Amino acid sequence: MGTRIESDKVLTAQAFTGTYGVNYGRIADNLPPPGSVVTLLKAAKIKNIRIYDADHEVLTAFKGSGIEIVIGLGNEFLTDISVAEERAMDWIKENVQPFLPGTSIRGIAVGNEILGGTNMELWEVLLPAVKNVYNALDRLDLAKVVQVSSPHSEAVFANSFPPSSCTFRDDVLPFMKPLLQFFSQIGSPFYINAYPFLAYKSDPEHIDINYALFQPNEGIDDAKTKLHYDNMFEAQVDAAFAALEKVGFEKTEVIVSETGWASKGDEDEAGASVKNAMTYNKNLRKRLLKKKGTPYRPKMVAKAYIFALFNENLKPGPTSERNFGLFKADGSIAFDIGFTGLVPSSATSSLLSFKDKHSQELMGIADNLPPPGSVVTLLKAAKIKNIRIYDANPDVLTAFKGSGIEIMVCLPNELLIEVSVGEQRAMDWIKENVQPYLPGTSIRGISIGNEILGVTPIEIWEALLPASKNIYTALDRLGLTKVVQVSSPHSEAVFANSFPPSSCTFRDDILPFMKPLLQFFSQIGSPFYINAYPFLAYKSDPEHIDINYALFKSNKGIYDAKTKLHYDNMFDAQVDAAYAALEKVGFGKMEVIVSETGWASKGDDNEAGATVANARAYNKNLRKRLLKKKGTPYKPKKPVKAYIFALFNENLKFGPTSERNFGLFKADGSIAYDIGFTGLVPSSATSSLISFKVWDSKSLGSF
Fold this sequence. Notes:
Radius of gyration: 29 Å
Largest sheet: 8 strands, parallel
Number of domains: 2
EC number: 3.2.1.39
Strand content: 5-15%
Family: Belongs to the glycosyl hydrolase 17 family.
Protein name: glucan endo-1,3-beta-D-glucosidase
Keywords: Glycosidase, Hydrolase, Signal
Shape: elongated
Pfam families: Glyco_hydro_17
């Protein structure tokens, strides 16, 4: 059966309508479910993705999202599909047609990096497979919607330097030319996987890394075209254009189907670092968003899919193969590339979530929360005088002007490396996010990252102290250090052990970073912030932990033989464990403040203790305990202070159900459960914006 091609199909099937997409690889056993990935992509404003198969769970999750997807027909299916059009039809009917139009499948990549590879049999079946897939789509009237293509590696080229000299390999040409002819007829582009990282690591002595990273450099000149290139990415794209032109396809569009930079590698993998990955991907994103062409094709807008969305822990090969992700497996940003709409949330140290920048960071990761001004009203009614937010959102800071509520803002984890490099970057951040709001908005602290040590990549550990120093120095130069405190909250992952409290020590691998950080914070008078969650401890071992001990209820408690102190609740024990660890490294006088603690009101079946009754009991008893302004068994003269996590339930958070149910208040502003805010009752003045009135004058106190 011949291939049916009509002129109107050439212009209608467009798989990539933007300029910036991401490859969603899933060779891992620790990734978030596809539904959570949709949330992340929407928050990051990523509208185009590629997957390497046609996984039904993924395609179902993306239904109605508006995100455009190129699916993959795996290399292992090519021989079978090439035999007959009906086999292609069966595949389309199973993996494409049922999901349209709800899921925006816009393309099918037939194989990946076939030509130039080692399996010559696949070279021979690629074109027949492509034709059969196209014909099946055409018979189903889907060729106008779903584009057919096939990505290539740079192994198809005989040479690519300078760009104008690029040609296809002689052995590849007999297969490439008829493939290009067919793609030209149906209006498909030439997809190339282009990796400046791979070029650099193969010859770091002769390639300027700045040329590979879009950083200032001398660049290269192409004598034939008299064009100058200041980055390798554009040179690689123009090399593909040159090769196409030499075989008569100069009008074919080139799209980069994969490009990226590894954040970690083996010792012989030059350039694989968090800093370089951040630089490459951030600069590439900026370049693509400009929607401009290349030196050789200035009017043809460059487009690229970044590799990859996540780090993939099961990929074979060198370490770099498992570390191309923009995001870590838990959904947290691996490094900042300009996704300013994404901020980490820290209900736990192991699972971070994200939200759109237009939502309100103060209140959480959700799309159904009241505006910041209404939250100010709520906080005032509840007599809550201190809050933490996880960035420095201008809408929030503006809303809190004149409220008298003291705020700790956050320099997000993904900015630490950048701010650690120089004081000027810290100064710029302060001038943009802190200084303009003072003194009207009571910004009293800056959290430098959240849960860095023991959790994030070691390069961010290394950046924490210099970033803290640069922020403090910038504040000092502006005369703000007497007003704004600098600190950094830690998770309990920094401890080697914490039971009994007196035995608590810092982990050996963390000490080289923790001690100088503590020394600096001691010098500037900052406390030690710890995120302490009895809930997490209990749900990890409900058989051996008395829930009453975790909830401040009557129980036998525990006895610390070394200090001869008795503990009747886990919260106090966790605080004193931190004091013990500090004392062992010479900082026994440093104050400990709990930067996060809370209890989930709902959880999955395997999340022991996550109930409304337990959340009410924990938070109500904790509030009573804090209002007494008393110390712990080990530090009885130091009143305990704590920030409760969280103000609202957050419907868009990743992870188990508990992650979305830590709120004291529901999304509409009503009390989730009574913990002593008896002075708050919903006003019926409006149904869409709940306000509050005060029946009593109890206060949570201030820091």
